[in-house]
Automatic annotation (TrEMBL):
<feature type="domain" description="Myb-like">
    <location>
        <begin position="9"/>
        <end position="62"/>
    </location>
</feature>
<feature type="domain" description="HTH myb-type">
    <location>
        <begin position="63"/>
        <end position="117"/>
    </location>
</feature>
<keyword id="KW-0238">DNA-binding</keyword>
<dbReference type="InterPro" id="IPR009057">
    <property type="entry name" value="Homeodomain-like_sf"/>
</dbReference>
<protein>
    <submittedName>
        <fullName>Uncharacterized protein</fullName>
    </submittedName>
</protein>
<feature type="domain" description="HTH myb-type">
    <location>
        <begin position="9"/>
        <end position="62"/>
    </location>
</feature>
<feature type="domain" description="Myb-like">
    <location>
        <begin position="63"/>
        <end position="113"/>
    </location>
</feature>
<keyword id="KW-0539">Nucleus</keyword>
<dbReference type="InterPro" id="IPR001005">
    <property type="entry name" value="SANT/Myb"/>
</dbReference>
<keyword id="KW-0805">Transcription regulation</keyword>
<feature type="region of interest" description="Disordered">
    <location>
        <begin position="120"/>
        <end position="142"/>
    </location>
</feature>
<dbReference type="Pfam" id="PF00249">
    <property type="entry name" value="Myb_DNA-binding"/>
</dbReference>
<dbReference type="InterPro" id="IPR017930">
    <property type="entry name" value="Myb_dom"/>
</dbReference>
<keyword id="KW-0804">Transcription</keyword>
<keyword id="KW-0677">Repeat</keyword>
DNA sequence: AAGCTGAACAACCGCGCGTAG
DNA sequence: GCTACGCGCGGTTGTTCAGCT
């Protein structure tokens, strides 16, 4: 047996609100308040609307001091960092932005901000593949490589097309995913010990975009274990030199050379300066980013846990083929 | 000018949670 | 402790409109 409906669906109006309906609702609530019962409210006013619909209309549109559109850079930054911190808790995010509603922020994220952040990455990467020759061939080669031997190449494209780097790494008979836009950062060992209320925001949400993060324990844990207000994901490699990775950077400009954050491909602003370690470089066109890149075997294990089947690999491969064909 | 496509926004739906009885 | 109910939340769908072909 399903859940009982909150109202008589046959007798309620759906779809866009008319100015008359808006006026009725607004006027009543301004005079009498909601009365603590949204379900009963439409009947009192004489509106043929579901109580939930009234509530939504009031909260998202009619109540005073609501701002629509025109998100500032500062608001963008707040939304992004909170999203990375707590995931899609839109109501919490909205609480930090006066005048903004959770619905508004959610829509803004889904339609614009997400693309602003990650769409550019995909586009840049696609361009990089095309520019560097036959992308499909390259992907096929990567796939073969990942299936047949232990040496792996990841190609990654940076902001403003400036930082293309390849990472070569031997590993222990693990299959390396060849999906190029995945940017892998390790999850800290304590990641599974977050309070249940947090769930796994980062893993659940940003992993959709092929991004994985680790968390910096010192940032968000405290003595009583209850407050996680400063919880922030950070990019942090292993402290041991043995885990450092050499990254060969092709065609990167001085900004990239001087600022290893650029390898984060536009995501760097999410982290704040204090969370990014500095990188070293040598005279051979390589950039040592031991502080930014993870323990590679850990990455492989994570990938194996999330992308395990040949079918999934094939699906990704088809996707790449489509991208490649479109680019030609 | 017409049709198509995608972006932006509004609204709906279903579920989980808290709470009163 | 159980149940029913209302609220709030997040995901999804629907609608409108502008830009492009």
């Amino acid at each position: 047996m399903g859940r009982a409906p909150c109202c008589d669906k046959a007798n309620v109006k759906k779809g866009p609100w008319s100015p008359e309906e808006d006026a009725k609702l607004k006027s009543y609530i301004e005079k009498h308040g909601t009365g603590g019962n949204w379900i009963a409210l439409p009947q009192k006013i004489g509106l043929k609307r579901c109580g939930k619909s009234c509530r939504l209309r009031w909260l998202n549109y009619l109540r005073p001091n609501i701002k629509h559109g025109g998100f500032s850079e500062e608001e963008d930054r707040i939304i992004c960092s909170l999203y990375v911190s707590i995931g899609s808790r839109w109501s919490i995010i909205a609480a930090q932005l006066p005048g903004r509603t959770d619905n508004d922020i959610k829509n803004y994220w889904n339609t614009r901000l997400k693309k602003k952040l990650f769409g550019k990455q995909r586009k840049d990467q696609q361009q990089a593949i095309t520019r560097r020759g036959n992308g499909l061939k390259q992907m096929q080669q990567m796939k073969r490589s990942s299936e047949n031997n232990n040496t792996t190449t990841i190609t990654h494209m940076g902001e403003n097309n400036s930082a293309i780097f390849s990472l070569n790494q031997s590993h222990n008979n693990n299959i390396l995913p060849y999906w190029p836009q995945q940017q892998h950062l390790p999850l800290a060992s304590h990641y599974n010990n977050l309070p249940p209320s947090f769930g796994k925001p980062i893993e659940n949400d940003l992993s959709k975009f092929g991004v994985q993060f680790m968390d910096q324990e010192s940032v968000y844990s405290n003595n009583n274990g209850n407050e996680y207000g400063n919880f922030l994901p950070v990019i942090q490699g292993q402290s041991s030199n043995s885990n450092s990775q050499m990254v060969e950077v092709e065609n990167y400009n001085m900004a990239t050379y001087e600022d290893p954050r650029r390898v984060l491909c536009g995501l760097e602003f999410l982290y704040g300066d204090h969370q990014i370690m500095s990188g070293n470089n040598d005279q051979m066109g390589s950039l040592q980013v031991s502080s930014c890149l993870p323990n590679y075997e850990e990455i492989l294990l994570q990938d194996l846990s999330t992308t395990t089947t040949t079918q999934e690999y094939e699906a990704k491969f088809d996707d790449l083929r489509i991208l490649d064909n479109n680019a030609l």
